[in-house]
Design a protein that fits this description.
Layout (H helix, E strand, L loop, with lengths): L4 E3 L2 E3 L3 E4 L6 H11 L3 E5 L14 H4 L6 E5 L6 H14 L5 E4 L12 H13 L3 E6 L3 H10 L3 E4 L13 H10 L5 E3 L5 H10 L3 E4 L1 H4 L4 H21 L22
Parallel strand pairs: 3-4, 3-10, 4-5, 6-7, 7-8, 9-10
Antiparallel strand pairs: 1-2
Length: 261
Amino acid sequence: MNDPLVIAGKTYGSRLLVGTGKYKDFAETRAAIDASGAAIVTVAIRRTNIGQNPGEPNLLDALPPEQFTILPNTAGCYSADDAVRTLRLARELLDGHALVKLEVLGDPKSLFPNMPETLKAAETLVRDGFDVMVYCSDDPIQAKMLEDIGCAAIMPLASLIGSGMGILNPWNLRLIIDQAKVPVIVDAGVGTASDAAIAMELGCDGVLMNTAIALAGKPVLMASAMKKAVEAGREAFRAGRMPRKFYSADPSSPTSGLIGS
């Protein structure tokens, strides 16, 4: 906790945020999340039972809110109205819980964010007292608009949801990071541990992922790898990398006082 992630005034010991979809069962979900060390766990309200379907298995039995910060999200919503309605339901189910993840999708194939609807939903949710972490495109202008609305964290995609393509546009991410006064968390597109490390080395405050862990050959082992990658990337960012020196060799050993010289 000597370098905590702070979102909406609350501190978290882990900068890795994880999703709960696509696992074979709740037992595997819990094992992977334990291995990841994540404190914030995001849940698709439209796809996962957290109490809205009595008599069905409840994810909260495997991931009790006393042990994890549950982050309800609006996956599957294609309009501002649907997203707002979904998160109001989540707040009721979670006894007034205010921290939420907003995503409003543009189409079911790419799952790219619909930014006009995202901005509209963000305005309503912030006005309603929600602490909004918002999935968005890697457009620095629209990211700044979301921050100005009052969102608690900006979550630009690295590449398309579930693609595993990694960070396709590091330059835009740096522009967003450099201007932001709230946490910037890469959301979507991470495929393996090196992608997570690169995001953190760029200066992101955290990484959110689901598919990269859940669809790995060994999800629990991949979760452990992602934990280490996020920690290593953050340490590298804080340490500050050496300058790049193109066409200029620089011996790592002393060149004076050599034997025989």
